[in-house]
Amino acid sequence: MYDALNVLIAANVLKKNGKSVYCDEEINLPSDAKNRIYNKSEKNKLIIKIEEKKKIIDKKKKKLQKNMFKSLAIQSLIQRNKKKHIQEQSMKLYTSKDCGRDYH
Q1: How many domains, in total, are found in the chain?
Q2: By CB distance 3.0 to 4.6 Å, which of 3, 14, 26, 66 could disulfide with 8?
Q3: How far is residue 23's CA from residue 39's CA, in Å, rounded to a whole number?
Q4: Which carries the bigger pLDDT value, residue 56 or residue 5?
Q5: How far apart are the first and last CA of the chain?
Q6: Cα-based angle 83, 85, 89 (whole degrees, multiple of 5)
Q7: Is 3 domain-assigned?
Q8: What percent of the chain has a predicted confidence (pLDDT) above 90?
Q9: What local confidence, expressed as pLDDT, does residue 73 receive?
């Protein structure tokens, strides 16, 4: 905590008088930065934009989860079909060998 205060004091953001630390009203910020900090309507607009972006992110997360589930289901189906195909090929090979033999 004290390191952060010392850095802010060194950067002339905070002033120190004895044991008291205070913020000087004349912070060396660009004038437009001061306006952005103190302009409530701008702040409210930014808050609304942030909320809108959060909603968009939530929608995209849900869509991504849905697509991931579909992808896993498709991969599972592909694996199942490969195994089934291999089993069918094995059965064809097995039954074709048995058909050619005579059991007398």
Answers
A1: 1
A2: 14
A3: 19
A4: 56
A5: 96
A6: 115
A7: yes
A8: 36
A9: 95
Residue range(s) defining the domain that contains residue 5: 1-30
- Interval 56-95: pLDDT, tens: 999 999 999 999 999 999 999 999 999 999 888 888 877 7
For residues 8 and 84, give the distance between their C-alpha atoms in angstroms, rounded to a whole number.
69
Residue 95 lies in a domain: no
Please give the structure tokens belonging to residue 38: 């103190």
> How many angstroms separate the Cα of 64 from the Cα of each of 15, 58, 71, 75, 78?
50, 10, 10, 16, 21
Q: In the chain, how long is the greatest CA-to-CA distance? A: 113
| 100 vs 2 pLDDT, higher one | 2
| pLDDT at res. 26 | 56
Q: Establish if 2 belongs to a structural domain.
A: yes
Please report, as a single letter, which amino acid is at residue 19. Answer: K
Residues in the chain: 104
pTM: 0.45
